[in-house]
Amino acid sequence: MPTRRDEGEAMGENIPLGRMFINDEMRAAVSEVLDSGRWIKGAHSKGFGKEWAAYCGALAGTPCSNGSTALIAALRLLDVGSGDEVIVPSHTFIASATCVDQVGATPIFVDVEEEYHTLCPDAVEAAINSSTKAIIAVHLYGQPISPRIFEIAKENNIPIIEDSAQAHGAELNGQRIGGIGDLATFSFFPSKNMAVGGDGGALLANREDLADKVGMVVDHGRLDKYRHDFLGSNFRLSEIQCAVGRIQLKHLDDWVKRRNIIAENFNSKFENLNWTIIPAIRPGALHAWHQYVLRVSDREKFMNHMDECGVSTGIHYPLPCHLQPLYQNHPQHFEGALPVTEAICNSVVSIPVHPHLTDDEVEQIISAVLSYQP
Question: What CA–CA distances, in Å, run from 15 to 1, 289, 306, 308, 314?
């Protein structure tokens, strides 16, 4: 049986990349839902959708089963289908791309900015053609995308889906992520900046013509119990998870603030190391620091060193989407197609930056990095 910190955080031998936050208010909320007998489509799902949309500055929102289904639902709302193309980064979790295939369209992979690891505006502009139906803009690691992406989309009358699965609480030029694009999706998977006690996600709308439909698309496209106005699916989230999400939301700002304090500490200590590239923060952005990612030439050696120092590491992500086996028949499935993306995927390493790190653990992580000899 592992030992535990306050609020139920499980402890292992190494400092982990993340810890679960559990408190008595969450436990009580779960019990309340169980006792109520209303396990779906109740007050918590409605409340969580409204509260999350308000937090992000969106017009409307609904919780849903996970971040992957949120992306599929968003594409359906934009009527994306066979013959359409959707621009996506290749340096992202696979769901950012496969959602396009799920609706019968084709993902068009574009390269990322070397400094910020998000969509390269020039590459996006070059990829636009008459078949482009949408852009999925991933705020990777909690780093907001370039504001130029929104300008390019507007100039070309192409809707943007903000894939905000890693950007809870991030901001760009004073606007919360999730409240800028036509639609926005979130994941509440347990490792994310806030969670719901299992899989979970959300879909937000920032256009009047889509606002009334976000709740319908995750509930079989229905207006009432037996009237279905358009194609939807059962992508709903349970009342228990929505109740947990509402409580976690109360803590999100403090958690993002703590992540920024830790990341700023890391940057100040690592900025003069000549064997690594530290993460940059986009001007005008509040980074959410879902991951703190270093670039290291001998990744395996560095990860082994960190393990010996009692610090967990991860790779986000080792193989870009366009080189995944499932895209073996895609015209971009070859090495050299996206050189910046491929170079990044060959060198990134994530170290713990979660808000439940103690000050002693932060110092242990810093000491481990500084003691590495390439």
Answer: 17, 17, 10, 11, 12
